[in-house]
Amino acid sequence: MIKAIWNIIIGACFMCPALTSAQYVRFTPEFTRPGDSVTLFYNPTNTPLQGLAPVQGRMYTFANNEWQARDLTMQMVDSGWVTKFYLPEGSAFSVFNFEANGIVDKGGKMTYATMHTAKDGRIMAQGYTTWGFLRSPMFRSEMPPVVDSSAMIAKEVTMMWLKNEILHHPESRRPLYPYAIRVVREVRGKDGDSIILRENKFILSQPDATEQELIQVRDAYQSMLGDKQHADSVDQLIAARFPNGIAARDIMIKKLFLAKPEQRDVLWQEFTQRFPLGKLSNTETEKMYYGKVYRGRVYEAVGKTKNLSILDSMMAPAPFVALTEFHRLLIMNAWEHDQVGFDEALEYSGKLVKYIEAYTTKREGENSNFYTPLQWKQYILSLSVPAFKGHAVLLHKAGKDQEALTWLEKVKDQPDAKRADFLDIYAQVLMKNNRQRDAQDVAEAAARNNKATPATIEILKSAYVKKHGNDKGFDSYFESMKNTDDLNKEREALKAQLIRRDAPEFRLEQMSGGEAILSRLKGKIVVLDFWATWCGPCKEALPGMQMVVNKYKNDKDVQFYFIATQETKPDYKQAIKEFMQSKGYHLSVLFDAKDKNTGKLDATYNKYVKAMGFSGIPAKFIIDQHGVIRWMGSGYKGSPSGLADEISYIVELLKKEG
């Protein structure tokens, strides 16, 4: 009976290769063949996209042993959407997704998939297995994410599709080897060892076996069969046949990763001669170590030469993440810490962002072919926001605001472009380009989401004064722009964070002269901010802290102190003064005392760490009028106005308590 059911299922596949309901998707011609021009009709009625427009299509095709993804332009017709596409030669199977307003329709349990037919009317080779593997949980991470979880099938059904593939296309045995042995192990367990062994021998018997195939055999002996002797034997075969191949490259990568500093120069020269840079293999070793080795090579060179010239030879073949990390650490972070001059930072920033942008049309990574061109471009741009924004900051400082705007607008619609720091520079650059209305819109968006900065607030204030003739009522207007529901939720969360811990005493030198002693501040609300000049998030939070300091500057019952801790530079006191002056901050800075045990400048910080059981900066404490810690906050969420609101809310609560 069961066999009869399977025969009916397979027979249905021969009769109609389309695996989806014609109610939603139809193909013309019905039997799609490689090399044909095909018309696809999509009816969104009773689907998640019903009533939505425009609809975009995406097509994922398995052809010539790999996945190909493309975007489809859909045209609206009376009863749905239609598109035409050319089906590449070698296409075995295709599956379609449709999207509108951020909602994706994958077809549910039935999917929108079709097997393609050859000229003789048979299903194309690997059509059966692609249909099975695409819906198999065991291969989910290796298939494009184009079907819903409701479409998943049991491992026994996966085995059935595999058997029928081999039955109808014996030539598929070799390319399906690594998948087939996994299905056998999953379904039959140890009872399938003899089949795995047989398939291993089959691959080894091929005179033109590729290195990748031999690596798969080695892994099967080692991980599936636990046969180290045969695994080692295959390793020796790989080394003999492919002395400069994938396995040899992996060995060198790991060797470089573990090498001592004095060995790296020689090893790197050998590596680059044997394995040209930029030719990636997508192995586990490469994913784990290559990026670290590559970046480490550049960082070492910069450390030795004290300039960025090494980048000239290392940018073109660099992995994408290496480029973004170079920009973050060697450009922006180094410039902010006076480790690189402005002109050099701007020059190499410009070079790096061009290489970063080039990846929008340059694929990298084993699953990069799961993205359509538009998806890949958006994916790369989503990861490029910090670099493009940082480059715009440098261009803005250089007075090149038109160019700065170009880079900002490439990524303005990405999720990270909603951050306060991006909105801040974007609004300023728009103003410099005489796009006042657009700048005001950006500033208003920042205010509504409580991500305003001093610069965006000033833009709003200028527009308000222009309209009303003065700034009377601006503070109320600004507050009214914030989302009340979000504010109330945040305030409830802050109220739940209130605590009671005795505040450790301190007696610290003030940058402005004299000493600050906590015990003498009884009767005042004291806000402490532990920070350091080397701490990026600490410095990013200071604009928000300056906002709240300004709010209470005339309030004698509220005192703010910014405790500079864990500083290491001999001239750190002078450096802090110069930093405050360069940024225009007016903050009461205290210098942390030396720890008697370690000699480090973190004695007060350590007292608060011990009292509160935390570590890390920035860290903020609010102490009430009785010398009791009532609130602690760590890290920085990225919003100056949000931070100012947090501190203000707690201060006002403590005022009411008295």
From TrEMBL:
Residues of the signal peptide: 1-22
PROSITE patterns on file: THIOREDOXIN_2
Name of one Pfam family that matches: AhpC-TSA
GO BP terms, alphabetized: cytochrome complex assembly; response to stress
Residue span, Thioredoxin domain: 497-656
Compartments reported by the entry: Cell envelope
Keyword Signal included in the entry's annotation: yes
Molecular-function GO terms, alphabetical: antioxidant activity; isomerase activity; oxidoreductase activity
Superkingdom per UniProt: Bacteria
Record bears the keyword Magnesium: no
Cellular component terms per the entry's GO annotation: cell envelope
Gene3D superfamilies the UniProt entry points to: Glutaredoxin, Tetratricopeptide repeat domain
Alphabetically ordered keywords of this record: Cytochrome c-type biogenesis, Disulfide bond, Isomerase, Redox-active center, Signal
Name of the protein described by the UniProt record: Thiol-disulfide isomerase or thioredoxin
The species this protein was found in: Chitinophaga terrae
